[in-house]
């Protein structure tokens, strides 16, 4: 029996980065968490330097020297949306010496692999933004640029928050229909009126970081029957469904029992209006599709990709899932 080989699994998003040092038997030796490593936000060189620091921290947590041989590094980062971005990141990582071999790609692939072992699968992440990727058993992939409105995207937490503000402002000043969102927005920010919120956000007395919480305000209002909020939620469901069904058609999966993995904060919250509409829309297109909401951290998927690449036994995947279910990362932020 050959000795276990070490690997690195990395999942880097806008707000946090998880790095796992584990082996081909599924044992976790080091698990650390640092700040966001999206190259589009902090720059590619800064992102690589941050990953290098976190990998060093994972090695120290495992009480292993920097020179220990590592067979594989699977690195999945937010912001690697275009092939050119993936290629540039791969070139930047190649000289680091982190491992003998590497794979880099968008973090939505890690989310997909964490959620299913099926070779036919599609993942949608709806967090701050929105993205979708898919794969088929024959190795083909489907993906979208995911660059926001310029690439045809609609939705995600930040976009939903801006729509909440838009509808609340117009309801208060009379340009739009009445909606419970107006009072809910003022209450969310602890202000008397939506206009007070607008002024505070513009002048800086209210933090922009509180905007993301408005997506929860939206779903609360929709759940209570507000017509304006329900229309926005319905549109978000339609967009998510469209991503899944278009990816499925590109991959020829419409009649196949493919997996659909849903993740990101908006979908992870399992709001019934959104979840039920997405499920109904996907099933109307692909009756055999199986939907699941990811519960484990996406870094699990990066680790499973490493085990796949190393030809590990199926028991190793189960061991890795179990280990990361119980493990808590050392905070390096």
Automatic annotation (TrEMBL):
Pfam families membership: BcrAD_BadFG
Domain ATPase BadF/BadG/BcrA/BcrD type: 10-306
SUPFAM superfamilies xref list: Actin-like ATPase domain (SSF53067)
Species this chain originates from: Catellatospora methionotrophica
A GO molecular function held by the record: kinase activity
Keywords recorded for this protein, A-Z: Kinase, Transferase
Protein name per Swiss-Prot or TrEMBL: Kinase
InterPro entries recorded: ATPase_BadF, ATPase_NBD, Euk-type_GlcNAc_Kinase
């Amino acid at each position: 029996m050959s000795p276990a080989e070490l690997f690195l699994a990395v999942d880097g998003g806008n707000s946090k980065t998880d790095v796992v040092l584990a082996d081909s038997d599924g044992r976790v030796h080091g698990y650390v968490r640092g700040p966001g490593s999206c190259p589009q936000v902090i720059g590619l060189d800064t992102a690589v330097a941050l990953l290098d620091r976190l990998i060093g921290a994972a090695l120290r947590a495992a009480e292993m020297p920097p020179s220990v041989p590592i067979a594989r590094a699977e690195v999945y980062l937010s912001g690697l949306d275009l092939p050119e971005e993936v290629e540039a990141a791969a070139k930047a990582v190649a000289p680091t010496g982190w491992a003998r071999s590497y794979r880099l790609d968008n973090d939505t692939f890690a989310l997909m692999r964490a959620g299913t072992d099926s070779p036919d699968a599609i993942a949608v992440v709806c967090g701050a933004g929105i993205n979708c990727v898919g794969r088929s058993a024959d190795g083909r992939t489907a993906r979208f640029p995911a660059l926001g409105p310029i690439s045809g995207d609609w939705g995600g937490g930040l976009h939903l928050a801006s729509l909440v503000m838009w509808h609340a402002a117009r309801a208060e000043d009379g340009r739009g229909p009445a909606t419970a969102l107006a009072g809910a927005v003022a209450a969310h920010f602890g202000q008397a009126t939506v206009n007070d919120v607008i002024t505070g956000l513009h002048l800086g007395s209210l933090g922009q970081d509180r905007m993301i919480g408005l997506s929860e305000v939206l779903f609360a209002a929709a759940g209570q029957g507000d017509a304006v909020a329900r229309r926005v939620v319905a549109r978000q469901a339609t967009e998510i469904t469209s991503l899944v069904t278009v990816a499925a058609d590109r991959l020829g999966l419409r009649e196949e029992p493919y997996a659909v993995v849903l993740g990101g904060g908006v979908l992870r919250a399992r709001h019934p209006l959104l979840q039920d509409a997405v499920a109904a829309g996907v099933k109307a297109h692909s009756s055999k599709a199986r939907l699941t909401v990811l519960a484990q951290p996406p870094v699990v998927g990066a680790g499973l990709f490493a085990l796949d690449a190393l030809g590990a036994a199926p028991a190793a995947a189960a061991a890795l899932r179990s280990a990361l279910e119980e493990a808590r990362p050392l905070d390096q932020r």
